[in-house]
Every structure is written in C-alpha cells, then in structure tokens.
Q: What sequence folds into this?
C-alpha cells in the first residue's frame, strides 16, 4: 500500500509544483492557496507512505536506494513547509517542490523495473522525450538570441545616431534599423524562457520513466548527461526566479540567459562522454 500512497503524493506534488510558479513569479493569491493546500495533502500521503514502508520493512532505517530517496524527499518537503509556516517564505517552494517531485517520482513507479506494454508505446514515449527536450533547447536558444539583439539595440540607441525618416544615418548602425524595440525584445526573451521550462520538465519526467526500462535503472542517473540535464533544469528555475523576483531586465537578464545557454552546451557536450545515453551509435 505504501506504493499507492506514494503515487498519490507524486501526483499531488506535481500539481503543487505547477501551482508554485504562478504563485511566486506573478504573486497570484489563488495559486498560492492552491499550492499550499495541494502540497500539504501531498506531504500527508507521503508521510503515510514512508511510515507504512518502514513498518513493512520492520526497520526504522530505510532499506534500499528508493527508500532513501523517498525519505530524503519527505525531509525536503517537511523543511519547506516548516520554513513557510515560520517565515511565510513560499518562494522557496519554487525549488523545494520540484525537487521533492523528482525524488519520489522514480520510487513511485514500484520496486520492480518498469516495462512498456509494447515497443510502439516505448518509441512514442521516446519521441515525446526527445521532442520536449529539443523544444526546450530551441526556446532557450531563441531567448539568448533575443537577449543578444537586446544588447545590440541598447548599444545602438545609446550611441544616439541621427535618424531621417526612421532610418539611421550612422553607417555602423544602419544595417540594424530592422531591430524591434527594446521592450519587445525583452518580452520575447522572457516568454520563450517560460515556454521552454515546462518542455524541459516534461522531457526529464519522461526520461525518468524511460530509464526504468533499461537494465541500468538507478545507475542510469549517474550518467554525466543525465546529471547535467537536471543541473540545467535547476539553473533554468533559478533564472526564471531571479528575473521575476528581482525585476531583472536588460543587460543583466541577457547575461543570465547566456549563462544558462552555456549550461545547455555543457549538456550537449556531455553526450560525447556518455556511455549509456547518446543519440548516435554506441
């Protein structure tokens, strides 16, 4: 039964992880209440699952890697709710809730290795996994492009060129007359970031399911590319949080986008060193 309660907690943690972003990034009170209530129910079912797991194992210590992951996730969630209760710091949930979800997602699949009912289903999930991650990479690249164009447009406007009928007379900046306004470029950069994050999250979740079908199972997550992918997701969350909470715009936001893009390149380069996770022949 502890697997059943853990699966219920996983679904509720997923819902709370979704609700935390509009609650923190946009300050929406309704989403904040939803996040707290759903997250609280998830913590309750998670606690019940851990207690039943320890009772069934006749031990007060977790037995096995998945039991340790579940217990660690419970501690992370518990600390978050404690901090929220004492300091009303719900913004920390933007990190704590997704981490808790990913920690218990694999244990919630069950003790045995997960297998797909048919090869067609496995290929469909694999295509969805690759498509979601490629969409996230494309969105991040487009955000970086908009940020670079923002820097060029800012530099162009600060040079104070003379305009005749909307066209610059400066030969250095004349080829860039087609650039959109700064506000438009800023909105494009931020919107593409917000589009890419759910794509990356979906890709990582599907990848976690696919990993259970391999003979490596938990060892799959020690692969450098997988580690780099989860690191990139964490940096992605930090970027969205900093941009929204600190009101970061313009040049500093562009530099942050560039930093996340470098992490994305590291993920792609990790594919070269990966022994278990690569697109080409092994």
A:
């Amino acid at each position: 039964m502890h697997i059943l309660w853990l699966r219920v907690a996983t679904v509720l943690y997923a819902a709370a992880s979704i609700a935390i972003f509009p609650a923190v990034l946009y300050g929406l009170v309704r989403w904040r209440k939803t996040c707290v209530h759903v997250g609280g129910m998830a913590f309750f079912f998670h606690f019940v699952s851990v207690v039943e797991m320890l009772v069934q194992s006749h031990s007060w210590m977790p037995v096995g890697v998945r039991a340790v992951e579940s217990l660690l996730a419970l501690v992370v969630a518990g600390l978050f709710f404690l901090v929220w209760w004492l300091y009303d710091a719900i913004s920390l949930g933007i990190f704590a809730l997704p981490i808790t979800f990913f920690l218990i997602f694999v244990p919630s699949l069950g003790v045995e290795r997960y297998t797909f009912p048919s090869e067609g289903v496995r290929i469909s999930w694999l295509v969805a996994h690759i498509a979601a991650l490629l969409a996230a990479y494309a969105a991040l690249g487009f955000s970086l492009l908009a940020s670079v164009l923002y820097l060029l447009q800012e530099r162009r406007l600060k040079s104070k060129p003379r305009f005749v009928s909307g066209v610059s007379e400066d030969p250095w900046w004349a080829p860039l007359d087609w650039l959109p306004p700064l506000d438009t470029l800023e909105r494009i950069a931020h919107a593409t970031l917000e589009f890419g994050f759910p794509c990356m999250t979906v890709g990582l979740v599907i990848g976690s399911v696919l990993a259970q079908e391999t003979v490596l199972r938990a060892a799959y997550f020690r692969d450098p590319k997988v580690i780099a992918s989860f690191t990139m997701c964490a940096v992605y969350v930090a970027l969205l949080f900093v941009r929204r909470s600190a009101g970061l715009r313009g040049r500093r936001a562009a530099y942050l986008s560039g930093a996340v893009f470098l992490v994305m390149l590291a993920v792609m380069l990790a594919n070269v060193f990966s022994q278990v996770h690569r697109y080409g022949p092994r």
User: Anything to note?
Assistant: The chain has eight helices and two strands. The CA atoms of residues 27 and 172 lie 43 Å apart.
